[in-house]
Specification:
Blueprint: E1 22-24, E2 32-35, E3 47-51, E4 54-58, E5 65-68, H1 70-78, E6 85-89, H2 97-104, E7 108-110, H3 116-121, E8 126-129, H4 143-148, E9 152-155, H5 166-180, H6 183-203, E10 210-215, E11 217-218, E12 221-225, H7 231-237, E13 240-242, E14 251-255, H8 256-261, E15 266-271, H9 277-286, H10 294-297, E16 301-305, H11 315-326
Parallel strand pairs: 2-4, 5-6, 5-8, 6-7, 8-9, 10-13, 10-15, 15-16
Antiparallel strand pairs: 1-3, 3-4, 11-12, 12-14
């Protein structure tokens, strides 16, 4: 977990979008977010990728990259691209040990999002954002403003895909790898992920799914995982059913009464930021409305780091982690 408090995450601001994302070497649509050099395009370039209602075009592999949000930072590190990174921001939880040294080599520009001025001081030629709030027009970091400064941008496609599954992860990795010319590394990561998914699937064959309520945070309402993000697919592959999988949002606020009425058998806490899982657990156990839910009566709880519940490089590990907690006898 971060050593400094992280402000309220931007996820509450970035709920639905329904724009398809496709990869192409040429494209049309909204104005392109282009990184261009002084010379002719590099071999195999330019690359143009349709991205969440815009286009990302690069004439060569970007060399000065800033990542905004942890899950996209980890994509860069997993692709072996830390030497291209001149800044990162917005850590939600601990960086996995296999990426810790690489992460330590990258300057941290801000605990949350950097200002436009701080971002420009890093002199990036490319900004990779994890959530739509990374490119907040009202804070000066909008994609058009960055394009005007000669900076290409790319947004994680979980924010705009109609349906988000593990196939979305494959597309995301291939998109980013194509931009940087490291396609082989992306295929290695995809092969590793699919091997993990296949192993879990084999172990859970014939296992009865359990109903799962995600608790990202809880106060007067429950901030939970809806059906539009990858969370539902992770839970399903791990032998569960997201009780709010019918909600057409990545994340959604639901009432305590609604949460209790879905009779969850397991509560899955997302772990991040300044509020610990133990604090969330105590809040759930103290709530009289939730008291009758099977998960609360049996104190059947599971935990997942927030970054593992997003489109990134933790998908195989996330499914394994959830499955081991939902169905320990299968492992």
């Amino acid at each position: 977990m971060p050593t400094t408090p992280v402000p309220d995450r931007p996820h509450r601001l970035l709920l639905p979008a329904a724009l398809a994302t496709a990869v192409a070497l040429t494209g049309c649509g909204a104005p392109a977010q282009t990184a261009t050099g002084s010379g002719p395009p590099a071999e195999g370039y330019p690359v143009t990728i349709g991205n969440c209602g815009s286009e990302t075009r690069v004439d060569a592999p970007p060399e000065r990259v800033v990542t905004l949000n942890q899950h996209v930072t980890e994509v860069m590190l997993a692709l072996g691209l830390e030497d291209r990174m001149v800044g990162t921001a917005y850590l939600d939880d601990e960086v996995p040990p296999e990426y810790a040294d690489a992460y330590a080599s990258v300057p941290v520009l801000a605990d949350a999002y950097p200002s436009f001025e701080v971002l420009l001081e890093a002199e990036p030629d490319f900004v990779y954002g994890g959530f739509t709030s990374a490119f907040d027009d009202t804070e000066g970091r909008g994609r058009p403003a960055l394009a005007d400064a000669g900076i290409a941008t790319y947004l994680n496609i979980e924010q705009c895909a109609d349906e988000v599954t593990t196939e979305t992860v494959e597309t995301e990795l291939r998109n980013v790898a194509r931009i940087f010319g490291v396609e082989e590394r992306a295929e290695e990561l995809i092969e590793e992920m699919n091997a993990d998914l296949a192993e879990v699937g084999a172990r859970l064959e014939g296992v009865e799914p359990v109903d799962v309520l995600v608790v990202d945070s809880i106060d007067t309402t429950v901030f939970t995982s809806g059906g539009s993000g990858i969370g539902s697919d992770l839970i399903e592959r791990a032998g569960g059913r997201n009780v709010f999988g019918d909600v057409d949002d990545t994340f959604a606020d639901v009432s305590i009464e609604q949460a209790a009425a879905r009779s969850p058998e397991v509560i899955l806490f997302y772990d991040y930021g300044a509020t610990s899982v133990e604090e969330k657990r105590r809040a759930v156990l103290a709530d009289p409305v939730l008291a009758g839910a099977p998960a609360v009566e049996e104190e059947r709880f599971a935990v997942l780091p927030l970054t593992s519940a997003l489109v990134g490089v933790r998908t195989g590990d996330a499914v394994t982690d959830i499955a081991e907690q939902l169905h320990p006898d299968a492992f």
